[in-house]
Structure formats: C-alpha cells, structure tokens
Amino acid sequence: MVLIGGRCVDCGATLFPVRQRCTSCFGPRIEKASFPGEGRVVSFTIVRQAPSGYFGPVPYVVGNVALSDGISALCPLTGRDVEAWHTGDAVSAFALNVKVSDTANRDVLAFRPSTGPEKRK
After folding, report:
1. What are the tens digits of pLDDT across the range 30-77?
2. Predicted TM-score of the model (pTM)
C-alpha cells in the first residue's frame, strides 16, 4: 500500500497526512507525495478500556510507526495478540474497517506485521 501525504514546495518538509498548510513554515504550497506503507513500531500502548463511542474489540493496540522521510503515523496495530507487539517490529499499512456507530463502518489506516524476511531489527 502506498500512503499519500504532502511535501512543502517552500521548505521541503514532508507531511502526513496531506494538509492545507505546511506545519513547519505555514506555507500554503503543498504538493502531494507518496510514501511507502512500510515502517517500524517506535512505541505502542495497549488500550484495555474502551473510550466513549468506541464499538470495536478491547483490548487493542495503538502504535507510533516510523515511516520513510522522517514521518510517522499513530495508528491501530493489528494482526497479532496484543501482548506480542514489540518496538522495532516491521509493519505494513492497510485499510482496517472499523465500526463507528451501531449502523456504520469506515476504513482507517492501520498497520499489521510485515510479511517480509526481516520482521524485527
């Protein structure tokens, strides 16, 4: 999966997700840029109590994933037992379908373990 973000024309900063203005120089000239959907888990937490309005399973894991070009994403981690996650795990992006109300679902960015040969560093 390729992730779509942005690159500031004025200062060269990379942005994920894409924004209307640069978060470094506040310039409005943002070009769309694509980034590989591969990364490594920098940190994570196990959420054991569902927040108000959450309709999914508990416990679940939310992780900070380092992507290329110095960008990172804070997203759900799935695909293994919540206790089996480690910092340094290689992960791949995918669209996770989550329940957002009693009658509606939507896709959110999430990461699951990579299937490549090097799974942990």
Report:
1. 999 999 999 999 999 999 998 887 888 899 999 999 997 788 999 999
2. 0.84
Do 66 and 106 lie in one domain? The reply is: yes
Compute the CA torsion angle 66, 106, 97, 30 (nearest 10 deg): -20
Reduced to 3 states (helix: H, G, I; strand: E, B; else coil), residue 62 is strand
| Cα 43 to Cα 65: distance, rounded to the nearest angstrom | 7
User: What residues have CB less than 8 Å from 87, skipping those under 6 apart?
Assistant: 41, 42, 43, 44
User: Are 42 and 20 members of one domain?
Assistant: no
Tally the C-alpha atoms within 13 A of residue 110's C-alpha that lie toward its C-beta.
Answer: 17
Instruction: Return d(Cα 4, Cα 9) in angstroms, integer.
Output: 16
Which pair of tokens denotes residue 75?
């997203």
| Angstrom distances, CA of residue 99 to CA of 48, 58, 89 | 17, 13, 26
Q: Which domain holds residue 97?
A: 37-113
